[in-house]
Structure formats: C-alpha cells, structure tokens
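BUG: 3D viewer hangs when loading the predicted structure for this chain

Environment: internal workstation, default settings.
Expected: structure renders.
Actual: progress bar stalls at 90%.

Input used:
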Amino acid sequence: MEPAGQTEQRRRPARERLLNAADELMFVDGVVLTPVDVILRRAGAAPASLYSNFGNKDGLVAAALERRLKEWTEAWDEAIAAAGSPVDRLLAIFPALRTYQRERLSERWCAFSGTAAAVGRPSREVTRMLDAEDDLLHGRIEHFAAEVVAGERGVRLADEVVVAYLGAITGMLRGHQERAIAAGERTARHLVEVAIAEQ
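Structure tokens produced before the viewer hung:
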C-alpha cells in the first residue's frame, strides 16, 4: 500500500508536482542542471505534462523561479512592514532572509544565484526571472538607502548593503546559515553607521 503522503502528492495537479520537484532537486539540493527525467520521476509525471505546462525544461525553471520570487517578495514585504525606522527598512532584507529560510522555502543558499552560476547561457525565460530578482533587490535597497543617506553617498551605501547581503548568501552555501545571515546583517549595519557618520 502506498504511504499517505505519496498518495496525497499524486492527487496534486501535474504542474504543482513538477514545480515541487524542481524546487527540491534544483534549488534545495542545489543541482540546477538536474536532468528532466530525474525531475519527472520525482514528480511522478509524464514528459507530456512537463511540455504541456511549461513548454520545456527552461520554462519549468523559469516558473519555479517565479514562484520563489513571489515567496521571497512576501517575506521581504512582511519584514519591511515590521521595520520601525528608515535604517530598519534598509536592513529588513536580513530578517526577511532569516524568516524565509526558517519558515518558507529552506534551501542551501539562493535559487537565483545558483541558477545564474550553473547556467552559462540562460534562456530568455530564465533570464527574465533572474533580471526580475536583480531589479527587486537593487531597486528596493537603493530606495531605502536614499531614505537613510541622501545623494551619491546613498547610492554607494546601497551598493555596499547589496554586497553584504550577497556575501551572506554565499556564506550560507559554505557554512552555517544563521551565522552567515547574522554576519551579513552586522556588516551592513556597520556600513550604515559609517555612511551616516560621513554625512
């Protein structure tokens, strides 16, 4: 007799099963280049279901990234809403990352960074999602940095906070996730303090 969890999984639509399999294999396990047949086996889906829902593997990867971006944006929105000051809004990306990892979609590091690193020439669909994540990251950080420090110094601060965040992401892959996030947050806070002092 099939276990209850597997039975429940098989009752889900093929699209959802394929997205879940892509999440688990490509982003959580960190193997973006996972072959299609492995994804199909994990999903318990036929090849036709992948092509009818996503067109091809690149379409599946793009859809999985789109779902990830939605989840991440929601977590970041919640952290921004909870922030009590302009500095807290700027640094809200770190508590958002902590919550995302603990409560939403645990992964080794970042689905977008992993995809960008593994896929030398991403398709148009995948590039669109990588660009969307990049635009969200830089756009928000630049906006909130400008609330803390005006002018050119605010632009430089935004770049520095982004680097601290990306350093935390990389540290998550190489070691303890909570420690990497905390170190990135401390670094970013120090950079903010320096920028404010330089005004």
